[in-house]
Amino acid sequence: MQTPTKPYTLIDGRKISIEIKQEIAAKVAERKQAGKKIPHLAFILVGDDGASQTYIDNKVKACKDVGYHYTMMRFADTISEEKLSKHITAVNNDEDVDGFIVQLPLPAHISVERITDRIRPDKDVDGFTNRNFGSIISKVPLLMPATPFGVMELLRRYNIETEGKNCVVVGASRIAGAPLSMMLVQQGRATVTICHKYTQGLADYTRQADILFVAVGKPGLITGDMVKEGAIVIDIGTNRVEDRSKPSGFGLVGDVDFKNVAPKCSHITPVPGGVGPMTIASLLLNTLRATELRHP
Question: Across residues 26-37, what is the average pLDDT?
């Protein structure tokens, strides 16, 4: 008689993000009671991209939920890189602002790399500047890239051990895969393999993973035959796909074929509701840290 497959544990990023926001709100209340500075987060949005507007709206709501002060700055997509840089300098010099975000993507005529590196590292709550990126390998990181920070926090709160584990990261982007691999080595003491679009025989690597992280942006890239029994799968991808059953006409899916992969897993993140909510929670944690560093 065949033994039934053990049900997998769904890693609930929404639940954990709510817990984090409650913890932050309590700390903000303590700071207010003690007469200390309340964290202030600023947002810069260029253009009228619908997805970007939704992301900003969610971040503004999160600020309200935890009691942060916030400033919203909007600019037309015709703004020059020089003028945008001057606004960034002004925010850098505004001592009341503890952290700020330049929402991506930017218009094609503006260099993301140059704009990102103009942000003061101690206010860079996205964790994108070269200094913050490099600080990952130090014993005391400054402000960590938000998405991988959120992934590490999920693992910690679900008591998922990484030390000595074989971790495979599919995707080597500056936003997710590359910094996550560094965190897994430095903080998680894991053995890490990084795969990317040039990797040949991807399944040969993913089937060896105790913990598989996927951040590519390709729906259904990881199929059931690419994952070993009992693996932990963290799906970081968020992809819009056509779904006529929804009023909007589209739905969100990850990089993992959830239906066929989940039964083989011990733990797995859903999309939506897994890593996504943790990115905003991480932005809030970074903003609190930035405030505490400058205003203990």
Answer: 97
Packed helices 146-157 and 13-33: angle between N→C axes, nearest 10 degrees: 100
Instruction: Calculate mean pLDDT across residues 253-267.
Output: 95
Catalytic residue of the set 12, 21, 59, 122: 59
Q: CB burial class (10 A; 0-12, 13-18, 19+) of residue 37?
A: middle
Distance of CA 208 to CAs 111, 128, 134, 230, Å?
38, 30, 28, 11
161 and 185 belong to one structural domain: yes
Q: Which CATH number is 232's domain given?
A: 3.40.50.720
Q: Within 13 Å, how many C-alpha atoms sit on residue 151's CB side?
A: 31
* Residue for token pair 């009341």: 96
Phi, psi of 256 (to 5 degrees): -110, 135
103 belongs to the catalytic site: yes
User: Would residue 59 show up in a list of annotated catalytic residues for this protein?
Assistant: yes
Catalytic residue among 12, 126, 210, 257: 126
Average pLDDT over residues 149-157: 97
Q: Are residues 124 and 55 in the same domain?
A: yes
- The predicted pLDDT at position 6 comes to 59
Residue 102 lies in a domain: yes
Residue 265's domain spans which residues? 145-276
- Contact in structure between 192 and 181 (CB atoms under 8 Å): yes
Task: Please tell me whether the peptide bond between 277 and the residue prior to it is cis, using omega within 30 degrees of 0.
Answer: no
Which of 21, 103, 210, 257 is an active site residue?
A: 103
Whether 118 and 203 map to the same domain: the answer is no
